Amino acid sequence: VVVVDFFATWCAPCKMLAPILEEISEEVKEAKVVKIDVDENPLAANLYHVSSIPTIKIFKDGELKDSKVGFQPKEFLQEAIFHSTPSHQPLADDLKPYPTPHKKYAL
Which among 2, 37, 38, 107 could disulfide-bond with 45, CB atoms 3.0 to 4.6 Å apart, if both were Cys? Predict the structure, then answer.
């Protein structure tokens, strides 16, 4: 899994996100975190349709699995990465459909 951080050096939310991504790169061994400065690499930003920063794109086997725009809490990013890692096995709760509300009708 590759986590791509599209950022700019002048972007305050990008600066807030940087230490979170560093922690994730140390904690989640299945994920490789790479950073792309959109000012230095405008073609890459255009190629991946990045119009706002920070933008996080998560790829597995070269295929885009998830994309997050703006500052994201660590837990949200970990969850997105977790669902993209090869070791993720669906939990029983993942397979259950949403409960259907039961309505009682008076006759």
Answer: 38
